[in-house]
Amino acid sequence: MSSTDRRGPFEKVLAVRGMAQVITVTIGLVIIFIVFSMLSENFTSYRNMRNLLRQVAPILLIGIAQSYVLITGNIDLSIGSVVGMSCMISATLMTKGISPLAAVAITMACCLLVGLVNGALVAKCSLPPFIATLGTMTIARGIAQIVNNNHNTDSIGEAARGFRNLFYYGESLGVYNAVWIAVAMWLVFNFILSYTRIGRHIYAVGSNIDAARMSGVNINATVTAAYLVSSFCCCIVGFITCATGGVGTMDSGNTYELYAVAASVIGGVSTLGGQGLLLGTVIGASIWSVLQNGLILANAPVAIRNIAVGIIVVISVLLDIVVRNGKWMKKKSD
User: Fold this and answer.
1) Residue 274, domain member (yes or no)
2) Which among 267, 253, 233, 264 is positioned nearest to 65, based on CA atoms?
3) pLDDT at residue 224 greater than cutoff 90
4) For 294, which of 36, 108, 143, 299 could close a Cys bridge (C-beta 3.0–4.6 Å)?
5) What number is the average pLDDT over the span 240-258?
C-alpha cells in the first residue's frame, strides 16, 4: 500500500491544492460571524440573514468572474464597468418598450462581446491584462453612459415585474431568487473548473503558460473562455442591479472590480495564477458581505468598513506570496 493510500480523510482533503487556505478563511468567517453576533442582536435575526444572503449573491458572482481570470494568471479590471453596461443597456431597452426577454438577450450579447475582446487582446495580441482590461473598462463605462444619452433611465415599469422578481424580489422556498441564481451558477462553474478539460487547462495556463503550450493547450481559447465567464457573470450582476432599483444608473458597478478581487484573494485564489478553489470564493464573498453588514449594524463609518476590507485583502495577498515563495517551508527546514 502506498503512502498516499494510507492518508486519512482529513489529510486527503488538505492535499487538494488551495484547500488549506479555504479552511483557514472559513475559520476566519466563523470568528467574524461570532463577533458581530455578540455586537448586535439584530445581526442574527431571520430578516437580516435573508438580506445578508441576497447581499452575498452579486459579490459571489463577480468573485467567480475574477477567480476564473486570476487562475489563468491574468486580471479583469472591466468587471465593474460591464456590470454598469449590463444594467444600463437592459434598463434602457425595457424603458423603450423592448420585452424583458429580448432586452436580456441583447444585453448578454453585448457583455459577451467585451469578454471576447478582452480574451483577444490578452491572449492573441499579447497585451498586458492590466492595460487591455483598463481600456475595455473605460469603453464599457462609456457605453453605459451613452446608451441613454448620459442620463439614468426612467423606471422599467410594470411590464418588467417578472424581470425584477426573477433577479431580485422573488423568492422560492423562503430564499430570494438572486441567491438561487448565484448558487446555480456557482455549481455550474465549479463543475467546469474542477471536472472538465477546460478547467484543467485554465489551471495549467496559470501555473506555467509555456509548459501548457508545449502540452498542447490552446492558450488563446483558454484565456478567452475565462474572460467570457467573467463577462457572463458580470452581465447577470447587472441584471440583479437593474432589478433592485427598477432603473438603470450610469455608475452601477463602480468599484466592483475591487470587490471581485477581494472575494477571490480572501478566498485563497492566487494572484500569481494556477491556484484557487471556487469554494474559497464563496467564503471570500461571505467574509466581505458579513464585514459590510456587521459594521453597518455596529454603526461603523464607511471609512472604517473600507479600511477593514482593505487590510484583509492585503494580508491575504501577502500570505499567498509568502506561501508560494516557500519562505515558511524554508524556515521549517532550517
Assistant:
1) no
2) 233
3) yes
4) 36
5) 91
The boundaries of the domain holding residue 198 are 45-254
Helix (H, G, I), strand (E, B) or coil at 176: strand
What value does the mean pLDDT take over residues 313-333? Answer: 61
The number of CA neighbours under 13 Å toward the Cβ of 89 is: 26
CA distance 83 to 48: 25
Give me the number of domains the chain comprises: 1
Q: For 159, what's the count of Cα atoms within 13 Å in the CB-facing half-sphere?
A: 14
User: How far is 139 from 114, CA to CA, in rounded Å?
Assistant: 9
Whether this prediction's pTM lies above 0.70 is answered by yes
The DSSP letter of residue 173 is: T
Alpha helices in the chain (DSSP H): 9-15, 19-39, 46-71, 79-95, 100-119, 129-146, 161-164, 177-195, 197-207, 209-214, 219-245, 256-266, 278-297, 302-325, 327-333
Apex 247 CA angle, 244 and 250, nearest 5? 105
111 Cβ neighbours under 8 A, 6+ residues apart: 82, 85, 86, 231, 232, 234, 235, 238
Q: Which amino acid is at 280?
A: G
User: Does residue 313 lie in a domain region?
Assistant: no
C-alpha closest to that of 231 among 63, 72, 71, 78:
78
Q: Are the C-beta atoms of residues 133 and 75 closer than 8 Å to each other?
A: yes
CA–CA distance, 271 with 313 (Å, rounded to integer): 11
Residue 276 lies in a domain: no
Tell me if residue 332 falls in helix, strand or coil. helix
In a domain, 111, yes or no: yes
| Distance of alpha carbon 137 from alpha carbon 79, whole angstroms | 7
